[in-house]
Amino acid sequence: MPARDPLSVVFAALADPTRRAILTHLQHGPATAGDVAAPFAMSRSAVSQHLRVLEDAGLIERTVTAQWRTCVLRTEPLDEVATWVDTHRRLWDERFDLLDERLRTRRGEADHA
Length: 113
Fold this sequence. Notes:
Elements: H1 6-14, H2 17-26, E1 31-32, H3 33-37, H4 44-56, E2 60-65, E3 68-73, H5 76-111
Antiparallel strand pairs: 1-3, 2-3
């Protein structure tokens, strides 16, 4: 059973290139579902499934006004992903810096032996 914690759901949504392209499109502002679907060589039903995944991950919000379905980008989940990535990048950078220092020390010891 796949993980359902919010961060895992967002990463799973971002794993698909079509969904990332949809998010890029929505960076320019709200768009109708038809506008979102237009650039893709797939059925509207397939695009709708991608929109559902993005909505479930909290990355977009869909509203209905009369016959129009509008999609809006929500950045809060992306902020959470960026925070997670930055935290882990810092931890790994620290570990690599320590490893680098240890290797330099060992090389120096080997050169003096």
